[in-house]
Design brief:
Elements: H1 11-18, H2 24-27, H3 31-36, E1 40-45, E2 48-54, H4 67-86, E3 90-101, E4 109-119, E5 123-131, E6 137-149
Antiparallel strand pairs: 1-2, 2-4, 3-6, 4-5, 5-6
């Protein structure tokens, strides 16, 4: 778990943040919790965010992937999408997350894919589908983020909530 790989952002997004003096690829990570859980962001754009997480180390007492771990992956991916949709002048703050757990798994790697359901001026909602290595759906989630204007005390590099 642990080592974060380089996230692939669209060049226009990198350029937008670079104009503000922010190195977006260097800035972004899954946060302390995501790092402890082994979350890896593989691809990041406002229209699709992909990430992975190992089952090992993220299980509940019965040895199954913990539902809360799926929720962490889902909120991380949806928040990144909302942050990228809002752009450098907005901060994405999660206000609603729901998860339906379809299947228990005991090992391997899960992959989450976040795609937009709604992208407005003040809110963004993403559907996140988490699947196992065989492509079977493990969890369906939906995250809504409020998009707040960046305040001077937030700085230009305010991260998405996750």
């Amino acid at each position: 778990m642990g080592e974060q790989q380089q996230v692939r952002f669209p060049q226009e997004v990198i350029d937008e943040y670079a104009a503000l003096g922010v190195d977006l690829p260097a800035l972004f990570s899954a946060g302390d919790l995501g790092t402890r859980m082994g979350v890896q962001i593989v691809e990041a754009a406002a229209d699709k965010v992909v990430g992975t997480m190992p089952v090992e180390g993220n299980t509940q007492p019965y040895g199954l992937l913990h539902g809360g771990a799926s929720a962490v992956l889902a909120e991380t991916l949806g928040s990144v999408g909302a942050m990228l949709h809002g752009g450098s002048t907005k901060v994405a703050v999660g206000v609603d997350l729901n998860c339906t757990h379809h299947r228990g798994i005991r090992s391997g790697l899960v992959t989450g894919v976040a795609t937009p359901v709604h992208r407005g001026r003040s809110t963004a909602t993403y559907e996140i589908v988490i699947s196992d290595e065989q492509g079977r759906r493990v969890c369906s989630a939906r995250l809504t983020c409020m998009l707040r204007d960046v305040r001077p005390q937030d700085g230009a590099q305010a991260p998405a909530s996750a």
